[in-house]
């Protein structure tokens, strides 16, 4: 007869959580009541449960290691599947991920430059002076005196 004590419900819930269940699902599967299962995320604060989760995740990271070649091959499989289903968007996403994996795409490019604002403004002024004749910028003048006299009206602008 096995004299080993069965795991506590909180330990069982931790293992169910590691298996991919949500906290409420994990608690329910571990034997907690429905009312407790609804607020089962508090199990994550339990040091014993937190340690089990951390150890399990570390083991998963260690055993599921994948190198770039394996990842690229897996992406080839997934792209072929997407193509067979006629899912062009999934094919494109797979190709994008392959390009990222190969280092062909960069999410963010940071460019740092130094600019001498004073010199840039001076250059702009010189360019504009060459392009625009300063006298051409003077406001136009209009001789309206003949219009007023033509209509028998005194020119209000006359001196």
Walkthrough of the structure:
The protein is mainly alpha-helical and 159 residues long. Among the domains are: 9-63, no CATH class; 68-101. The protein contains eight helices and no strands. The protein has helices at 9-18, 23-29, 34-37, 47-63, 68-84, 88-101, 117-131, 145-150.
Number of strands: 0
Radius of gyration: 38 Å
How many helices? The count is: 8
> What can be said about the biggest beta sheet?
none
Which regions have little confidence, pLDDT < 50, spanning 5+ residues? Answer: none
Strand residue content = under 5%
Structural class: mainly alpha
The topology string of helices and strands comes to HHHHHHHH
> What's the mean pLDDT score?
77
First-residue to last-residue Cα separation: 124 Å
Bin the helical content.
55-70%
Summarize the structure.
By secondary structure, the protein is mainly α. The chain has eight helices and no strands.
Key traits:
mainly alpha, 0% strand
Topology:
Layout (H helix, E strand, L loop, with lengths): L8 H10 L4 H7 L4 H4 L9 H17 L4 H17 L3 H14 L15 H15 L13 H6 L9
């Amino acid at each position: 007869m096995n004299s080993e004590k069965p795991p506590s419900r909180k330990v069982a819930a931790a293992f169910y959580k590691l298996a991919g269940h949500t906290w409420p699902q994990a608690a329910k599967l571990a034997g907690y009541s429905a009312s407790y299962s609804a607020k089962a995320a508090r199990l994550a604060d339990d040091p014993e449960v937190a340690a089990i989760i951390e150890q399990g995740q570390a083991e998963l990271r260690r055993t599921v290691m994948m190198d770039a070649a394996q990842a690229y091959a897996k992406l080839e499989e997934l792209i072929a599947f997407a193509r067979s289903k006629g899912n062009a968007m999934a094919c494109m996403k797979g190709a994008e991920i392959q390009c990222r994996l190969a280092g062909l795409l960069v999410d963010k490019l940071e460019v740092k430059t130094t600019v001498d604002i004073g010199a840039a403004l001076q250059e702009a002024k010189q360019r504009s002076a060459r392009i625009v004749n300063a006298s051409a910028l003077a406001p136009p003048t209009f001789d309206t005196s003949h219009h007023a006299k033509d209509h028998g009206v005194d020119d209000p602008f006359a001196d």
